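Hi there, hope your week has been kind to you so far. Thanks so much in advance, here it is:
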Amino acid sequence: MHFLFLVFTLVLGTNCQFSSGTQQLIVDIHNSLRSKVATGTYSINDTVKPTCSNMRKISWDSTLATSAQTYANTCPTTHSNSAGIGENLYMRMTTANIGGLDIYGGAAAVAWEQEFQKFGWATNYFDMNLFNTGVGNATQMAWAKTNLIGCGVKNCGKDASGMNRVAVVCHYKPLGNYLDQLVYVSGFTCSQCPTGTSCDQTTGLCIKERPKILNPSSSLQLFLFFFSAIKNTFRLEETMQTLWILSLVCLGAVFANFNEGGKQAIVNAHNNLRSKIAKGQYVAKGTKKETGSNMLKLKWDGSLESSAQGYANTCPTGHSTIPSIGENLYYYWSGSPITNLDQFGGMASAAWESEFQDYGWGSNKFTMSLANTGIGHATQMAWALTDKIGCGIKMCGPDASKGGMNRVAVVCHYKIQGNYLFKTIYNSGATCSACPSGTKCEQSSGLCA
C-alpha cells in the first residue's frame, strides 16, 4: 500500500496504545468517509462517487486493536502476513524527539483518505491497476463489507538514518482489497444492507440491529419522554436549558462543538509542545530551544469554549476584538462535503505548531519583528503563563472566494492571553524552577500544574 513519510515535529514520550478518545476519532473519520460514499456526497476532483447500497458502519474491536498493537510494536517497515485481516500502515519520521502518540491516530486516518484526493478513484472494481495508483489504504477504509477496526501505535526511536519514527497499524475485519471484487455495490443507499443489519438514516450506513427499548412515534414524544424524566430533578432554568438542547436533537439541528476526544486532542497537542520546551527537548527548524522554568500546563475551559464557539459560528475571516483573550484561527477548504469536524482540532493544533518548523523561532522575546515572521499562532501555544484553552468549530459551507469549496473554521481562545509585545514567551532556566505561586512541578511533563 502507499506509505506516507513526512518530516514532522513530534514530542517526547514512550510507546502506548491509543486512548479511548483517539479510538473514537479513528472510527469517526472512517465512518465519515463511508457515510459520504453511501449517500453519494463523496467528491474527488469535482467527480461525485455513485451512492452505495451496502456500506456497513465500522466499530472498534479490541481483539483487532491487540493484534495491531502487537505488530506496531515490531516497528514494521512493510505489511504483516496476518491471515484474514486487512491492514493499513502509516509512518512519520522526524529528527526531533517523539511522544504524544495519540495525535497520530487521526493523522493516519486522514492521510489514508487523502489518497483518493491525490490519486483519484477511477473505478469501483478492485484490481492491480487500481491498487497501483496508490489508493490501497483508502480502499480498505471504504471497503463496504468491513465493519470492525482496531489500531496500535509505536514510538520506534531512531532508525538507520538517524531519524525518529512513529508507526501506526490498523487491522480490519472482514478484510478488504480482494482482487477482482467491488469496493462497494452501487445502488440506492442502504438498499442492500446485509442480513442482521438495518439502515441508519442519519448516516446511510448499515448498522447491527439491536433490541428497541424506546420507539417514540414522533419527535414530540421523544421530547416529552425526556421532559418527564428530568422535570423533578433539575431547577427550572436547568430544565429549560436541557430541553432546549434536546429540542435541537429532536428537530435535527447540528451542534458543532468538539466532542471530548476532540477537546483532549487539542489540549494534548498544546501540552506536548509545552512539555518539550520546558524540558529543553524542542527543536525549531534545526535549533534546540533552552529549557523553560515557568511553563504552565494547559487545561480546557468551558467559558473559553463558549466564546470560541460563538465566534466560530460567525465563520470569521479575521480575528475578533474580544478583550483580554488570546485567539488562534485555522481554516480548511475541501471540494468534498465535510461531516466529521472533530478531526480538525488536532489538525489546527499541528498546523499552528508547524510555524516554528517552517519559519524558525529566532528570539524568546515577542516583538513585531518576531510576529512578522509568521509564528504568532505557535507563540500563543507556547506562551508560558497561559493555562486555559477552549475552542470552537463551524462548518461554513461553500466559500465563493475558493471556487465554492466547503470551508471549516476553527477558533481557539486562551487565558492568560499571550503574544504581549516586548514580553518573554517563557523564562529560560532549569525546568520548573520558577513555577508560579499555587502550582508545583509535574515531573513527567516538566510543566507547572
User: Anything to note?
Assistant: The first strand starts at residue 43 and ends at 44. Residues 20-38 form the longest helix (19 residues).
